[in-house]
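fyi for ur records
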Amino acid sequence: MNKKSEKIRSVIHEKRIKLHHFLPSDRKIWTIVGTEKEHWLDPTLEFCSCSGFYFGMLKNKEPCYHIESLNIAIKE
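which gave:
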């Protein structure tokens, strides 16, 4: 198992994904609690506030492990 897969498994297994549902706007923002800080995500825009998102998307168009973790968690 590679490092990215281990991080994804850890985020999901430790239930570090949170949904913030705002009313009456019905706006939904997801956050992932990290070891040092929290990152917010918008799955409809495929956006994450982490630095890995910016550098990964600029270099090789690959999403960060936060987005991959969120997509798996939503499916489950």
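Strands lie at 17-21, 28-33, 38-42, 47-48. thats all i got for now
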